[in-house]
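Trying the structure run again after the queue cleared.
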Amino acid sequence: MTDKRRIGLALGGGGARGLAHIALLEAFDEMGIVPAVIAGSSMGALVGACYAGGMSGKDIRTHAETLLANRVDFARYVFGARKTRPLELLSLKGFASLHFDGERLANLALPDFLPRNIEETRIPLKIIATDYERMEEAVLTSGPLAQAVGASIAIPGVISAPTIDGRIHVDGGVVNPVPFDRVRDGTDLVVAVDVTGRPRPTSGKIGNMEIAVGSLLIMFNRMADLKRALTPPDIYITPKIDQFGSADFFRVREIIASAEPAKNDLKRKLERMLLTSDAT
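Done. Tokens:
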């Protein structure tokens, strides 16, 4: 199917749950549809950067499954193939303030062949971050790709954010967890993918880190619901990923597989809307 309408695609944040985006991107490829613009927040920024940069959904799946096959292979990639020293992944900005370095994580996750700058991507890309000092949303459309992604994935208290234009930027989900409003201009159809989900059933066993990140995801979920109620996108997809935690990156195959029903739902909705458009 060749679409005649300009489609805006928004990919939201959700930690490891954001790996579910990959299956939805495969739906676009299988239908022969190329989004006119992509906006991504947090994990959606990372996956969206790969897709906008020229990778297919299948390419991203292969990359993610290879990188996150297991902890041993991941360590071999990071400390062997990429020659990263352990301390380079960490950011120490003061006593008792040890975090993962957001920009370095983004550099590790993004393949080397992707464009270095946002404005060079094959599909126009908007990366959502939060300008901490100005307390406002930052829509990044130019500048270093890894730096912008590093800012968008910078979970407060867990991942340190790079400084952009002299100011600290943190996770885009803090202000816009599913940024479908950023792909409305100049498009005919808006598709949003929400992977925030609900807190994973814990049976009373849950670590402090998962509580912290899970609490953020609850906030993201509520904010996305409010925005959707005010100005809903044309298609809103919510993969069933509640059984996964925000740090379950090494369950990549299971997460992507769990999004297959959502992928099929997206294809049905796109076909219906595009066929309706052709008929009118």
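The first helix runs from residue 21 to 31. Worth checking whether this holds up in the mutant runs.
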